[in-house]
Amino acid sequence: MATISIGKAWEEAVAFIRREATLLFPVALLFVALPGLIVQEMTPPQLQEWFAQPKADAIPVMPPGFALSMLLGIVIIWFGSLALFALALRPGISVGEALRLSFSRLPVLLGTAVLVVVAIVAFIVVIALVSVIFAMASQQAAHAMGLLLGLAAVIIVFFASIRLVLLNAVVIDTRGGVVESLRRAWALTRGHFWRLFGFLVIVMLLSTLVGTAAQVIFGLLGSLLAGPEGARLAGGIAAAAVSAVVQVYLLVMLARIYRQASAA
């Protein structure tokens, strides 16, 4: 098992980004930040409130075409992340070459997503069947079992997301198919769960703090210039810009971690 050093990955990432910033940040802004901002602007306020506080008995009606637009935005963001990994893992590659490589490997990444979703849905169906069986015996037992199985589902999804955090790097750096990419990404993170978990938690916290601060500051400036609508738009743009910067650092660090893990 290879040793993973987050500190070494950080040092290498900072040096690489300093050299290749003019290649990385335009790709991140165009294919990661901008699609996210567009989807955010298209999301109705009542749907944004539901995403923040989901309630099973109060699901708002989605506007026509919104689900398709959100799915398209996610696919574009995945495409951009693959291009960033290509730039980070193949020194000397041009942006055009990285985009072409990303496009050619995007079907594999989509295939892995479909396979993972099918596995999660199958697990949820099993949970529902077990809950029905317990409901036939006792309502209290069914309620308790439903809570336990729901918690188990959350834990399993969370665990799998950490174990597959290097999937994009595997997809762009190898020629394997869907199953082989999943198997290799899973194997590379074996024994490194807690280290990767801590790293991702720190990144998430820093991203949230910096993004919120930028959104508040630029939102206030926007409100002075154009009122509430200007505040919302300026805050959204600022948050998207911060997200692009964070994504560049995160993905380049994951590329360096992938190189360390695959060295063995």
End-to-end Cα distance, whole Å, is 7 Å
Q: Give a short account of the largest sheet.
A: none
Beta strands, count? 0
Poorly predicted runs are: none
Roughly how much helix do the residues carry, as a percent range? over 70%
The fraction of residues assigned to DSSP E strands is under 5%
Shape: globular
Provide the succession of SSEs: HHHHHHHH
Describe this protein's structure:
The model has no long low-confidence stretch (mean pLDDT about 85). This protein has eight helices and no strands. The chain is globular, with a radius of gyration of 21 Å. Helix content is about 85%, strand content about 0%. The protein has helices spanning about 5-40, 45-50, 65-90, 95-135, 140-165, 165-175, 180-190, 195-260.
Put the structure in a nutshell.
This protein has 264 residues and is mainly α.
Topology at a glance:
Elements: H1 6-42, H2 45-52, H3 66-89, H4 95-137, H5 139-163, H6 167-173, H7 178-188, H8 193-262
Helix pairs in contact: 1-3, 1-8, 3-4, 3-6, 3-8, 4-5, 4-6, 4-7, 6-7
